[in-house]
Write a structure and sequence with these properties.
This protein is α+β, with helices and mostly antiparallel strands and 494 residues long. The protein folds into 3 domains: 81 residues, no CATH class; 207 residues, no CATH class; 73 residues, no CATH class. 35% of the residues lie in helices and 15% in strands. The chain is built from 10 helices and 12 strands. A 6-stranded mixed β-sheet has the order 10-9-4-6-5-11, sandwiched between helices. The radius of gyration is 27 Å and the shape is globular. InterPro entries: RepSA. Pfam families: RepSA. This is Replication initiation protein.
Length: 494
């Protein structure tokens, strides 16, 4: 009799499903599909097919159908940017963000920026939120206000010293308006630049352009702050050198002045007072250099830093990584069918008017994050247009995590299209189909029909996919280390 040991961490039912999948006749093809997604944690399943036709002769050059695929479905990557939901797709998103930011720092003609971009004044600015109450931290003195020297990974870092006195309403309202604060900052920045140059705003626009790429990051206390690459260009963008008056000092001074001017007014509602939202006093503006000189940060460090935080969200603060609002009323607490003021029917029947779809008490989150999320729910009736309940899992923040100005560099869409074109060329070569770039006259018509068939895995498939993802990650790390060693040897030889 043969006994098979169950891998550690697997229950009997999951292990049985692993054996079922691995023992199927089409397991090799299933693995190939998952490897093509990078080991995606929640792939989208499609049914359907494609036909490649010669439009002149009407001949079918190639036909594909999912009928012969494992389970009769094709699995494609989900594309989720968040590392907590899908590490594989987040890795791709981080890579795209890295190349987008780097192209605006070092230049890349294929991505719309010349190498002369390095000569343009550029800084790395960090704009933070104000204080909403004292929190546990690690100051330069080493000792927190609570009297303890916290280690770097202490779970209490960022949590209030006194939960009762912390301004949770102010914190989530600030997060909720953070994108507007950034919008006003970009407006005032251009005004401050013109003012310091002694020009009108129209004249400044005719002589220069301000380009930026930014990413939002959650501090441990749950407040959003923004990291931004801000660059001076000529009026035509990165190909155009900035005017002589567009100096680094002028840009730095204008950033500080613009941040100080920004304000967003929030009207009083219910028991909430009127508020004036501003940036925090901790504004950091640092010069970006091509190489490390022991002081200012480098282009490589900036691109890596922005890419790292482009795949993270509020889950890094201990909050939930999925929406908690009622899906029927979208967190409003009101029925979409009955909106008569004062009517008992106006209350959402699914959530009983709370706007919640999850019980916050049962969620495995920190108490600080729970109170921030609860504040979003409590403020929803007072500020219904702000959709706070819908964005409670984001602690009120409802903006885009990664944005850029139009002429900063390339776009994420363009980077994805390059990758899609590369894979399409590989597929044509494998099938022996003509390349339209080499044979413009040999055009083909592709007819496709796809139907959504679900997403995700069975428990056994999920375990196998996670192992595939780890193998891919290990191979990438090994290849990176080998390349670094090779470059070090070549550098030593020269």
């Amino acid at each position: 009799m043969t006994y098979t040991a169950t891998p550690a961490g697997l229950d009997a039912a999951t292990f049985g499903d692993v054996l079922r999948v691995a023992g199927s006749a089409d397991f090799d093809r299933w693995q190939e599909q998952i490897r093509r997604t990078g080991g995606c944690s929640d792939p989208i399943r499609l049914t359907g097919g494609t036909k490649t036709i010669d439009p002149t002769t009407k001949t079918v050059l190639h036909a594909y159908t999912t009928e012969h695929e494992p389970g009769g479905m094709l699995r494609i990557a989900c594309g989720n940017r968040r590392a907590s939901r899908c590490p594989a797709c987040a890795w791709t998103y981080a890579g795209d963000t890295y190349h987008l930011i780097r192209a605006g720092l070092v230049g890349d003609p294929d991505k719309g920026t010349p190498h002369t971009i390095r000569d343009h004044p550029r800084v790395f600015a960090t704009l933070t939120a104000p204080s909403f109450g004292r929190v546990h931290n690690r100051p330069d003195t080493g000792r927190c206000r609570c009297g303890i020297r916290h280690p770097e990974d202490a779970p209490e870092l960022g949590t209030p010293l006194d939960l009762g006195s912390y301004d949770y309403a102010g914190a989530v309202l600030w997060n909720n308006h953070a994108s507007e604060l950034w919008r006003y900052f970009t407006i005032y920045l251009r005004r401050e630049i013109a003012r310091r140059a002694g020009l009108t705003q129209k004249e400044a626009r005719e002589q220069s352009r301000v380009s930026f790429g930014k990413v939002a990051e959650y501090q441990k206390r749950g407040a959003v702050h923004f990291h931004a690459v801000i660059r001076f260009d000529g009026p035509d963008g990165p190909d155009d050198p900035p005017p002589a008056w567009a100096t680094l000092d002028l840009l730095t001074d204008a950033i500080r002045a613009a941040a100080a001017r920004v304000r967003v007014d929030v009207e009083a509602a219910g028991d909430q007072p009127a508020r004036i939202l501003r940036w925090g006093t901790q504004l950091d503006v640092r010069l970006i250099r091509a190489f490390d000189d022991g002081g200012d940060i480098t282009e490589q460090a900036v691109a890596s830093y922005v890419a790292k935080y482009a795949t993270k969200a509020a889950e890094t603060t201990g909050a939930a990584d999925a929406p908690v609002h009622c899906r029927k009323c979208r967190g409003s607490g009101r029925s979409p069918l009955y909106e008569r003021a004062g009517s008992a029917l106006s209350r959402c029947a699914a959530c009983h008017g709370t706007g919640l779809g999850e019980d916050l008490i049962r969620l495995e989150i920190t108490e600080h994050a729970r109170r921030l999320m609860a504040a979003c729910i409590d403020l929803q009736p007072l500020y219904p247009e702000r959709q706070l309940a819908r964005w409670a899992h984001m602690l009120g923040f409802r903006g885009h995590f990664s944005t850029k100005s139009r002429r900063y560099s390339t776009t994420l869409g363009a980077l994805r299209q390059v990758r899609a074109d590369y894979r399409a060329a590989q597929q044509r070569a494998a099938l022996g189909l003509p390349d339209p770039d080499d044979h413009p006259e040999a055009t083909t018509l592709v007819l496709a029909h796809w139907t959504y068939a679900g997403h995700g895995y069975t428990p056994g498939e999920s375990w196998l996919a996670a192992n595939i993802r780890r193998d891919i990650q290990l191979n990438r790390e090994t290849a990176r280390e080998a390349l670094q060693d090779q470059l070090a040897l070549e550098g030593a030889a020269t």
